[in-house]
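Researcher: Going back to the complex we discussed earlier. I've cleaned up the inputs and rechecked each line, so this should be the final set. Can you rerun the prediction on the complete assembly and write out the structure?
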Amino acid sequence: IIGGSEAPENTIPWQVLLSVQGDRGGGMVIGDRWIMTAAHVVKHKEVASNDVIQIYMGLTEIKTGSLSPVFAASVHVHPDYNNLDDALDYNNDIALIKLQDPITFNSSIMPVCLPAEGATYVTGMMGLVSGFGVTEAAGNTRILTNKLKYVHLPVVEQETCSNSITLLKRTKSDVPSLTNNMFCAGVPEGKKDSCQGDSGGPFTLSEDGRFWAAGIVSWGVNCGQKGTYGVYTRVANYLDWINKTMQEN
Amino acid sequence: CWRLPDSEPLMYGEVQSPQYPQPYPPNLQEQWDLSVPEGYQIRITFTHLDIEASAGCHYDALTVLYDGKVLGKFCGHENSADGHHPGNHPILSPGNRLTLIFLTDDNNPERHQNVGFSAQYQAIDIDECSAPEPGDGSDPLCSQICLNTLGSYLCSCHHGFELRSDQRTCVLSCGGGIFDEPEGHLFSPGYPNPPPHAVSCQYIISVENGFTVSLNFTDNFHIESVDTLQGPVCLHHWLQVTIPNREPMKLCGGTRPGLIVTNSNTVTLDYHTDNDGQSNGWSLDYSTNRVRCPFPGNVAKGRVTPILTEYLYRDYVYVRCEQGYKLMMDGQELDSFSTMCQSNAQWHLPLPECHIIDCGEPEPLLNGGVTFMSGFQNQYLSVVQYHCNEPFYSLLGGVNVSFTCEADRKWRSNNDIVVSPTCIPVCGQPTKHISAYQR
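Model: Rerun complete. Updated structure for the full complex:
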């Protein structure tokens, strides 16, 4: 998280820390047996093996000796996710992990709500994005934090985001494309953003005192740079697939 | 000659004159010896008779004889003025034999060819019992009871007598009489007439276990008693009534005893007279009653049915518990209960108890719990309420649900739901919020 703050305990209880073959990623609790994350965090990896993936919950600080993973039973990547080796296609960047044992919820571990049917993403609405990904210290030095951080970011109008990406594509050839299964969040002046290691983590919107999972940290060009936005998987587009996958498994 | 095999006498048959229905030849002397089984007599009927008519049947004649005695001599035909025609009247032989002799002379009238006769006979059962008593002072066929049978008769005797070896006369024998019907009538030999002297009769009334015998003597009771200083005693003649486990009692005198309720299913009556004196005897009707069991009692929280004024042998009572209670006996639960009044006047099972039912522990609720609201030890009508571990879980449907232990031993909600509720996770509501006061 760039430009964010440390999350106090129990404030983002759905946050999940994934460690996949040593790569740090995020996820969110959506049920007592289910974690939602980004497909690119788990794709192409034998993630159902507990040697490959470790799942941690209820943490606001990663401390050696206090980590107690929960175990995955199966991983379900969206069937239309086709990010090949060039890693430029983030469409349908969503996956579900089923846990071996159900979790009992408490103040430090709690599920985030799924979007309501027909949920809308209102431009400018402030969301909360969190993770254990890289942060930025003084002088643009990127460092990996062991503390859960969060930042509030507004939903960006789709066209604005699209224009920013088009602009980037003029100078960079390997910029992924924006689809309707994605949305952007961030501020044009930069300094606040999600970043590497936050992938798969939650971008939540709040309504009537409840947080719902609007987005999954997916991709972006650089982090926190002026004129760029973070791109998130639009969870509301996947309600049918999520429900179907959970019911069938 | 050789002996023909014996054959059973016929029960019926037909006899015809030679060459019938052609005219009979002259100079005939034919004889038929008819017989039927012993105990029957023969009835013969002429279907046709046409024999040369003459006065006294002097020339041609058919003679019917029994044991040498002529029963009839016939000739002529139905419409002839002379001769002797039997007409349609059958002839009955006194016994089981009959002889017909047909004689013709050598002279037959030329103008009329007589065809002879045709007759049919059959055996008729003799009712030996209806025969009048012999007037010559000889003994009747049966001394007491005569039973006619087909072809014979049987003699029988009144109770207290048995048939002698002559199968005709009866001798006093009144021992060994066992009366096992639920009711009956007994009387002394020859009653109401005096029996022969030196009678020793035993009557045993023995009915099924579970019944008791009562004796009711009829008015005409007469057993000789002897008057002594201490009053009349049954010295030479008596009727002794023996009831198990009680002192035997001797009855005599001219007044019938009152109703004797024995409370036993077995009574022995011994009637004794000696060679002197005279007793006209006695008769009685006996009846039976079922034994009575004690009142079965009451069952707390239960009902004993049916409610009767008395409970007799083979009566059943049933016990049902009130709603919410179960039948228990010796620590075992019973599906149903009934007990029967036995022949020994005891119930075959003691009454059970009604214990309050319980529904067992309410189903535990995952991520929740159950609270007792009222009641005791999960018993009938206890009320529990489920709750979820808030604020992380909430009840599906959102309303606290109470369950009551019902009579079917299931915890049920007011909506008749049996399954326990479900706690669903609360999403998106952290217990602590990120505070941002800085502007």
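Model: Worth noting: The mean pLDDT of chain A is 91.
Researcher: Good, that matches what I expected from the previous run.
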